[in-house]
TrEMBL record:
InterPro entries: SWIB_domain, SWIB_MDM2_dom_sf, SWIB_MDM2_domain. Residues 14-90 form the DM2 domain. The lineage of its organism: Bacteria, Pseudomonadati, Pseudomonadota, Betaproteobacteria, Burkholderiales. Keywords: Isomerase. This is DNA topoisomerase III. One of its GO terms (molecular function) is isomerase activity. SMART domains: SWIB (SM00151).
Amino acid sequence: MATTEKPARKPNAAFMKPLTPSATLAAIIGPEAVPRTEVTKKIWDYIKKHDLQDPKNRRNINADDKLRPLFGKEQVSMFELTKLVSGHLK
């Protein structure tokens, strides 16, 4: 019985298109245009570097002075993060 190999998945072009961050988002990830996937990675790097995950509930992210204008509140869940960030990309 022969096994059939699946072709490697191609990344979705929409995710790979470089997007320009707003000034608010650029304060966190830098001003250069990057793909959406890279934006998420850089934000998580920032959150981990500054220890901003809520210690009681790791799914929540506490805002610091740079994240507060991006979030619009003191704390967001990781599930809200993508929606909030997408408004800051062009």
